[in-house]
Design brief:
Chains A, B: InterPro entries: HTH_LacI, LacI/GalR-like_sensor, Lambda_DNA-bd_dom_sf, Peripla_BP_I. Chains A, B: This is LacI family transcriptional regulator. The structure is a homodimer. Chain A contains 12 helices and 12 strands. Helices cover 45% and strands 16% of the residues of chain A. The termini of chain A are far apart. In chain A, helix 6 runs parallel beside helix 7. Chain A is of the alpha/beta class. Chain A folds into 3 domains: 44 residues, 434 Repressor (Amino-terminal Domain), CATH 1.10.260.40; 131 residues, Rossmann fold; 125 residues, 3-Layer(aba) Sandwich (Rossmann fold), CATH 3.40.50. The relative contact order of chain A is 0.12. Chains A and B meet through helix 4, helix 5, strand 2, helix 6 and helix 11 of A and helix 4, helix 5, strand 2, helix 6 and helix 11 of B. The first copy, chain A, binds a DNA duplex through helix 2 and helix 4.
DNA sequence: TTGAAAGCGCTAACAT
DNA sequence: ATGTTAGCGCTTTCAA
């Protein structure tokens, strides 16, 4: 690969001048600019970002560490992040931790080693990854899920209120024994949605914890169906588990919403095309991403500012699965 | 941030020794290893990958440039890539071109500037991006879609055969006037699936081209419904457009599969939960990702080897939407 | 306005 | 087995 010195020689100028031209300094003679650009084109020169980053001690890359690329929730969120990032001159690289704390730690370590300009993370619960990030100088924004013990910029939805609304909706519809399927302890969305559910319930809570995956939801629903204290409705704390639960009910021939009501948290892509259509608590995903990116831009500009916490509203979308 | 020299000073050794310890050289005295590791821990030292990459003139990052992060097709594919990459000592960063050639070009440029160790790309059709990649020394594997005019390692499914099978399936089911909704010209999947469809058809083809998005499928179906030559079945060349088409039919109250048969190419996540369930041509997505990653590993090891082209089979999954 | 030169942090010859 | 040293490619003072 051609280096900046090759270009300099070809154009008959110094490397410093080439650098100035390429970085848009206005103190360069137009004639030289032309010569440099010609040389760049002829040699097919492409600046080595690694060298530049080393010299500048900074990069223009953001790492966005998401917990499950298979969850459509992240699609719109990432788009929101990308749109703001691009405008601010950053490129976004996505890292998929796949709900695996070990992978999350690997990606956090990589982001720091690679001197990324910032990190946006939806924690899969690794305390170690969170600690590493917090002790590092890299600007961090937590999204969707709070960072364990983290005093950092955070963008979440009002999980507790959303869960409460969903549970009250089931009560209003006439369901009496409402269970909750939620995610792993220590993941803030799992815990807060559980709290919202429990708070809305006049009776004793009935809780199953599992992972945030479709299979987890299936298994959880399966165990609820065969329990002695079988519920007549379930609030499911994320979208993929809700789909799993729905599939389980279909497989078992349980009538939804007649025999069993169902509300999920998080939209699923074709919530209105599945049968029965799925009642969900929808989140402003795109806006979540935009907001996180804006916070990160601000944080990079002002590292010492007090961390912000933004809570966006979630909204119930009543559909068939809860309409008794 | 602490540098390798800080660690060296703290441990009372040279920077070279620290480097050796950190890179697992076995020619280091165990006592020194211990001292170095202690110093590393005390200082919270973290190697600067940018400096390392510059010095080594290589990185351990792969760029995976996908054309639409919102398409669930890529979920399993990316997982396949990641699993192989991790085993081979590479980290994967995802870049979402969002079917936008300009974004694709930006990400290709970034991947080259950042000296990424390799690129796996699902082209959104930018000839310029393809050219840039092919003229660069970076190892490239095309996945899902062929790279425009690219003599590179390629992993695709047998699009033509899959489309033919789908079309024949509709004919066998008794549909007579079968249309095709496909993607942009120049995108290999769009063109090959169209060819497979046309090849299987005894009559004149009826084709609508649009983008590969849900809205595109909706609009295309809408125009087919109001055309004078209204079809009784449609083969839709990707998953998102199939969902759009299905939604359009639902909105218009057209009975599927009675009034209109439908087959999509690519699975959708809950094909069996939507109503009617959607007949699709399924692809071995995870295997596609694994294969691409394996080719990339080989290519990095043997840059001069002849490019391979791997064609994996696609498989019809008959469901309700085509069962007249 | 331009060039010379130093140095970002690391690794790998080479020397000891 | 360990240290010395040069240099990866770039940017940015500093001097002219």
């Amino acid at each position: 690969m051609a280096t900046i010195y090759d270009v300099a020689r070809e154009a008959g100028v110094s490397a410093a001048t080439v650098s100035r031209v390429l970085n848009g300094a206005r103190t360069v003679d137009p004639a030289m600019v032309a010569r440099v650009l010609t040389a760049v084109r002829e040699l097919g020169y492409r600046p080595n970002a690694v060298a530049r980053n080393l010299r500048r001690s900074r990069t223009t890359l953001w790492a966005v560490i998401i917990s499950d690329i298979g969850n459509p929730f992240f699609t719109a969120t990432v788009r929101g992040i990308e749109d703001v990032a691009q405008q601010a001159g950053y490129s976004v690289v996505l890292c998929n931790s796949d709900e695996d704390p070990a992978k999350e730690e690997t990606y956090v370590a990589a982001a720091l080693s690679e001197q990324m300009a910032g990190v946006i993370i939806s924690s899969s619960g690794s305390v170690k990854a969170a600690k590493t990030l917090l002790e590092s100088p890299v600007p961090v924004v937590a999204i969707d899920r709070e960072l364990p013990r983290g005093e950092v910029d955070t963008v979440v939805v009002d999980n507790e209120a959303g869960a409460r609304t969903a549970t009250e909706h089931l009560l209003t519809a006439g369901y009496r024994r409402i269970a909750c399927i939620t995610g792993p302890e220590g993941v803030s969305t799992a815990d807060l949605r559980l709290r919202g559910y429990a708070g809305a319930l006049p009776s004793e809570p009935l809780v199953v914890r599992t992972d945030f995956r479709e299979q987890g939801g299936y298994d959880a629903m399966s165990s609820l169906l065969s329990s002695s204290d079988r519920p007549d409705a379930v609030f499911v704390a994320n979208n993929l588990m809700a789909v799993g639960a729905l599939r389980c009910l279909a497989d078992r021939g349980v009538d939804v919403p007649g025999e069993m009501g169902l509300v999920g948290f998080d939209e699923i892509p074709w919530a209105d095309l599945v049968r029965p259509t799925l009642t969900t608590v929808a989140q402003p995903t795109y806006e979540l991403g935009r907001m996180a990116a804006r916070l990160l831009v601000d944080r990079i500009a002002t590292p010492a500012a007090k961390p912000a916490k933004v809570v966006l509203p979630a909204e119930l979308r009543p559909r068939q699965s809860s309409a008794r």
